[in-house]
Amino acid sequence: MSRAEERELESTRVTAWLRDAIIIGERAPGSKLIERDLAAEIGVSRVPVRDALKVLEAEGLVELRPRTWAIVREFTAADLADLDEVRQVLEPMAFRLAAERHRRDGLERLRAALEDEQESARSADQLISRRAAADFHEIVVDLADNRLLTDLMGGIRSRLRWALAQHDDLHHIAEEHVALYEAIRDRDGARAADLAFRHVESSRLERIAHTEALRTSSMPVIAD
Question: Is 17 in contact with 42 (CB distance < 8 Å)?
């Protein structure tokens, strides 16, 4: 393996590690990401860390600062409203096309992701359940078999995964995914599209409830 290939592989590994840490909340919005500290933590040079930060800036998860550090992006209400508006256009299309075009092997992949989500929801494993929920959405895009749609959804992939992690009602989201899966399985494109549109709104409300719960829990208790 050439030095250039080793660097690319290392940069990819660091990017995946840091992306995951941001999405699951280990790196909180607004927190500093300092090249030398990250490099020491993961045991690499600063070069792949710098490469990773540039990738994550393009994905909308970090904001670069002068010289050698960045911060985890703090999504505003306007940012998330923009994302919801885009989702309500693209996701109904993705689910409709998935219903109309899926193949058996693709449907099996979707069912496996759904089962992982349901099982982890039952065991209250938030991390696995949220990841499986995001996987469910990405598999649907694959089943839609539209290259341009794949590219468009790829552009918001990391932001979407972050948004999907901002909910607490694992069972409710899993139940909605069951209904979406059944519409795809039945090749009912109109039903799948309608459910997908409503699912975006449901996800928005779950995210707001999650944010409010976090805000309330962090408020100081004032003694009587």
Answer: yes
